[in-house]
């Protein structure tokens, strides 16, 4: 949420559907948008260098 509040485009990934629901609820509560996919980190559909930064939590 911190990066989204700063105006960054935020993409989130998790294998947990419950984690996705909670993250989207918090984003709505904070008034920010995040793009969230429920998937394995091994199967992400992005080209190389698609992101400026990646943070694992």
UniProtKB/TrEMBL annotation:
Origin organism lineage: Bacteria, Pseudomonadati, Bacteroidota, Flavobacteriia, Flavobacteriales
Residues of the Methyltransferase type domain: 3-56
This protein's name: Methyltransferase type 11 domain-containing protein
GO molecular-function terms, A-Z: S-adenosylmethionine-dependent methyltransferase activity
Top-rank taxon, per record: Bacteria
Family annotation (Pfam families): Methyltransf_11
């Amino acid at each position: 949420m911190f990066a989204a509040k700063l105006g960054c485009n935020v993409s989130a990934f998790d294998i947990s559907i419950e984690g996705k629901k909670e993250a989207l609820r918090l984003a709505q509560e904070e008034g920010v948008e995040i793009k969230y996919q429920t998937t394995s980190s091994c199967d992400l559909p992005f080209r190389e260098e698609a992101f400026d930064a990646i943070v694992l939590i």
